Amino acid sequence: MTLSNPRLYNIFSSVRAIAYAPDGKFFATASFSSSDITLHVLIGDFLFSSSPYALPGGSTQPVSVAIAPDSSLVATANFGGGDVTIAPVVTGALGDRTSYALPGGASGATAVAFSPDGSFLAVSNVSSGTITIFTVTGGVLTNGIAYPLPAGYTSPSSVAFNSDGSYVITSTIGATHGVVVLKMDSSGVLSNEVGYPLPGGSSNPQQAAFAPNNSLIATANFDTADITFFQSSNCSIPTPPMNSSEASSGESTETIDSSAAKLQGSIIFSLKKYLKPSR
Fold first, then answer.
1. Which one of 3.40.50.300, 3.50.50.60, 1.10.10.10, 2.130.10.10 gives the CATH number of domain 15-233?
2. Inter-residue contact 128 to 145 (CB < 8 Å)
3. pLDDT (tens digit, 9 = 90+) per residue, 167-181?
4. Which residues have CB under 8 Å from 52's CB, separation 6+?
């Protein structure tokens, strides 16, 4: 994959988050400073944007935005309000926005994600140290239950589902900087939470993500400017993991390329082309 022809569009707000609709028809941005959501359509070189849709009163500082698998709903995690906002997409416009408080009432929502089938919504909260799972029915959230993380793992900074929705992961930036894997059953109940620390020196993972075939979990580590890859077999993660600086300085390029080839999606690239020793 080669990127080219970057184009800059000024949308007059401090964009904190962006998400493309799975059907490819629009994308959504969330503004941290003005606490609103904007829908956009890019046609050729022209960007068409809606007027900003304000979040409901009390919901402030959206830091993450997600769009349902069928592109019918937009959700934001609101750091200032400690809640999540959800709204339907109706004929290219955003319908009524409704906010739902996270259990415990703590501010600090950091990320939001829909399950692959759209039946559940996961929200991480850095203040309460929990992952909340809501049931999504007809655009309404119900049964919000907050699940604690394992001892020593606090302050979740992200949340993501694997490809079939049977596992949820979060990166943690509290006492232990690492990734936590949680099993989710068909009713949305989380269990069997297990934490895995980052390798020595890596810190402040701001986001964790699954590879499309679930064979790898990656974390983006802000403070140390590196990436950690955990190999995953049914989400049982062996240690030690591989981070970017170790891979580029301590392993052969053949090994690195083999790991990269496990990413079975539309983007397959050679890690040796991008990874540089960071320490």
1. 2.130.10.10
2. no
3. 999 999 999 999 999
4. 13, 31, 34, 36, 37, 38
